[in-house]
Amino acid sequence: MNDKVSALLNDQINKEFYSAYLYLDMANFYAGKGLDGFSNWYEIQAKEEQDHAMLIYQYLQNNGEKVTLEAIAKPDKVFEDLMDPLKDGLEHERYVTSLIHAIYAAAQEANDFRTTQFLDWFIKEQGEEEKNSMDLITKMELFGDDRRSLYLLNNELSARVYTAPSLTL
Ligand code: FEO
How confident is the model over 17-44, as pLDDT tens digits? Predict the structure, then answer.
């Protein structure tokens, strides 16, 4: 594998685990506010991020590439109101999308078609994650100020269940 592509993928493992940590921090914030549905939603999001990390870890190993695990940074977001994690989540997903696109571009430049095909799933997944984040913000803008509506929204988010990623290696 091209050195740059390998290094970017290795770095992305860390970024995905950081994403998991960031979402766990958001789950923790909502748990502290008594919003167990929001907390559930972000706990599942954290699990999905761990899946993303493990898929890249496995992909590198399957291709005979050395994996180096680095320290995971402390989540650095400060949440002051119920909307903050939602907006930070969208901003973070847009950042992750830019990272995935950069790896894709490097793989394309290296004629690494196996990696571009592997990343196709992640590109689609990022589109879904950005949409989910935007939908949550919209719902909160519409209903967040009303306590009964917030209760119903919390119930809706408590129904989210974890499913394993559709991509298998
Ligand atoms: Fe793994 Fe939410 O990007």
Answer: 999 999 999 999 999 999 999 999 999 9
Q: What is the CATH number of the domain that holds 81?
A: 1.20.1260.10
pLDDT digits (tens, 9 = 90+) for 159-168: 999 999 999 8
Question: Which residue is closest in CA terms to ligand 1's atom 1?
Answer: 49
User: Distance (Å, rounded) from C-alpha 26 to C-alpha 157?
Assistant: 14
Range of the domain at 137: 3-158
**129 CA distance to ligand 1 middle (Å):** 7
CA distance 115 to 96: 17
Residue whose CA is at the smallest distance from ligand 1 atom 2: 93
pTM of the predicted protein model: 0.97
Q: Would the CB of 39 count as within 6 Å of ligand 1?
A: no
Would 61 be classed as within a structural domain? yes
